[in-house]
Amino acid sequence: ARLVVLVSGSGSNLQALLDACQDPAYGAQVVAVGADRDGIASLDRAAAAGVPSFVHKVKDYPERIVWDRALTASVAEYRPDLVVSAGFLKLVGEDFLHAFGDRYVNTHNALLPSFPGIHGPRDALEYGVKVTGATLFFVDGGVDTGPIIAQVTVPVEDDDTEDTLSERIKEVERRQLVDWVGRLVRDGWTITGRKVRTK
Ligand code: GRF
Prior knowledge:
Elements: E1 2-7, H1 12-20, E2 29-35, H2 41-48, E3 53-55, H3 64-77, E4 82-85, H4 94-100, E5 104-108, H5 120-127, E6 131-138, E7 148-155, H6 162-187, E8 189-192, E9 195-198
Parallel strand pairs: 1-2, 1-4, 2-3, 4-5
Antiparallel strand pairs: 5-6, 6-7, 8-9
This protein binds 5-O-phosphono-beta-D-ribofuranosylamine.
């Protein structure tokens, strides 16, 4: 199966996918990496793995919708079976969702529907929850609102800072991402209402 991975940052989740794809039994290949900015470690990781990449910055386009079309066209060139947002910090628009909304997954560093948005660990810490985690879900038009594929829990420790909690989440988040992306592409899936099932 063909994966296109979208990134904005350090790319530890991307790296976990690249590593998993080394094993033919995993059943997937990262065929391209897309980003919304340059100068990020994710793009170096793609290059080191010999995977092509493309960058579309919102500010280089006159309107958000034109950026969205460019992103959609670049992703489409690689004919992905699944598009994975792995720390991609942009909300895609209607064109993208029209093209890939049935196969676009995102990983979030909190237990949705709690703490959506870009500060999942910080918000969980501030709220004072004792358990948080990571959620893999299909992206819809909202902010972290789509049908949930899988979740994993992580304890919040009394002396946690945003950094220590984020790192504890990322360790299990990577494993969940690799595990479930593999299952989705090897087994296929159905979505009935909000219920995601592998076949
Ligand atoms: C992940 O924890 C993701 O949930 C959040 O940003 C992190 C991405 O890290 N949105 P990386 O770029 O994969 O290292």
